[in-house]
Amino acid sequence: MTLLHWHYPTEILVGENASSQLATLCQQQSIERPLFVTDPSLAATQAIRGIIAACHNGHLAVSVFSDFSGNPTGEQVESGIRCFLEGRHDAVIAVGGGSSIDTGKAIALVAKQQHPLWQFEDIDDNWKKADPSFIAPVIALPTTAGTGSEVGRASVITDSQSHCKRVIFHPKMLPEQVILDPTLTVDLPPHLTAATGMDALSHNLEAYCSPSYHPMAEAIAIEGMRLIKLYLPIAYTDGSNLQARTQMLIASSMGATAFQKGLGAMHALAHTLGARYNLHHGLLNAVLMPYVLCANRHYLHEKMQRLSHYLELDKDGFDGVLEWTLALRKQLRIPHTLAQLGVTAQEQATIAAQSVNDAAASGNPIHLSQEQYLALFNHALNGTLDL
Ligand SMILES: [Fe+2]
To answer: According to DSSP H, which parts of 145-300 are helical?
Structure first.
């Protein structure tokens, strides 16, 4: 049997107002000068200003780095590194969605290394070039329930020279402490609650469907989907419901823990289309979900049977799961086609070629050829469910 390498998350503090413990947690970890990495719109909010004030009151020498975009670039990470070094910081506190947490993790990895950022791209054993003793600790506080970057060991950073996204990886990029505080997510508007929540569902669902052997990740994925079924509609209709917000944060962390097992064609196409059309990643996964399920249906019989029973769906097996995802999308006002997002048939051959080569494609239940990606793309573009 091949040797398998399994990873599990980190210290997680979860609950209402858990972020009020931040200064204490820093003190317990001997952190004195953390760099706060959070995007500009969040830095101005009452909640984040309150957290920073509490850190000052806890005698922490905090400064804030916010000079990065929704798709952070290598130059922006370099700018954060200068900020980290000039402020003589000893840790990163990353607060926000995937972009803030990915930027913070990349700064913490690279700031004190001898090699620049791209030397740590997730290729072969590049990560071994890093001196682990120079990696700064990261405390992550997600403000969306979707990417799960807070429990991940990588960052996605845009290379603006070559216009592509690169994955920066090191096992020690995993934040040492995660704080899941639902009060930080209550201001997320319904359409973003829907899109990020569907990203969390796509992580759990693709991980569950991926054929690699990882029963622990599979168990996490199926329970993650149960939480999303119960709580995403509530978080969408009543954003102030702290129980629903808490359960969605947990389901999001579960999805990112589970997808070490593999992702699939949803993410392969979503990565390609996201880079080309600058569309929301979770929204793309949400639109693509039923089309990808249909493309894989003949390989999912037993798993869909189990999933439909576990989720207590109205109908058994594949059809039950498909109907549930379609109904959930409708409830969350997710468009049914890529055309409704402004995607066109232009460059469809290039989109298919890039998707088949995307890293996520290898986790799909079956290998889909370039022609199959082309057909899948066209089904999703025009709203044809290939039953
Ligand atoms: Fe995703």
So the answer is: 190-209, 215-237, 242-258, 265-277, 281-296
